Fold:
Amino acid sequence: MRRLWLAGAVALATALACDGGIALAKEGSAASAGKGAEAKLSPAAEQFLKSLHPRTGDVVIPEAKAVMHLGDRYYFLPAADARRVLVEVWRNPPDAVSDVLGLVLEKDSTAFQNVWGAVITYQDSGHVSDADANKQDYDGVLADMRKGEAEENQQRKTAGYPELTLVGWAQPPAYDAANHALIWARELAEGGAPEHGLNYDVRLLGRTGVLSLNMVSGMSSIAEVRGAAQDFGKAVSFQPGAAYADFNASTDRSAEYGLAGLVAGGAAVAVAKKVGLLAILLKFGKVILIGLAAAGAAVVGFFKRLFGRGGEEEAI
Structure:
């Protein structure tokens, strides 16, 4: 599977991407090079930012038949610009960002200086039922996610990376029925890193698919990221005929899983869709890896509980 790398400004500043590349000049400590820091951009970086086409207000996502109502607190970079940021600034391989539809950042942040960034994708999964929204065993899903840690950490060790531990839910999965939004967050510990990582997921359900926003940051920024995630959960409206309530069971395709499947398969979907698998925290430049072993364990565990050992469906 191809993997997506999300690298933030600090990673570039620390590495000092060489020979006139688009890099943030390092001034002071790496930990202070995030949003609001006194850091000077190189001429190449300044020119790069001028070449982008940020948009505020109402932004249409044609693939999802949806509109993001961003106001003036956030801005949107369209697909071409978002992919340039991901590849040229955050050092992602080009073939890993082909499904990215856009990138949302805070008003006063840039591709080089930020606390978080939200990568936007859309999964044409079919209609995801929320009929059993109040019957989900998310603690069981969490336990399944942890089952692959030992194997994953052995792979990380072999590759020269520190161990990564899923500490738990930074926010347990919560479903907003009024807005058909599922939001959850994971707290991740990496080796001896002083700060834990934060991975926030927002899933917005439409008639026949799911609009996804993947946000990566550090636990010290959880309040800010949580606020943005809640904003996004309410800031999207699907166009007439594409809303969740427009589903027609006689003509539309249904997804093969419900809400718990979205969470359990989150890492696996990230692998398949190339979003959120391997991320460098935007603020601190720490490598976060959510790999195939953990994803596989979560998905296998989920389907075992779904169908039961005897093949009969169980409530989740």
Observations:
- The radius of gyration is 19 Å.
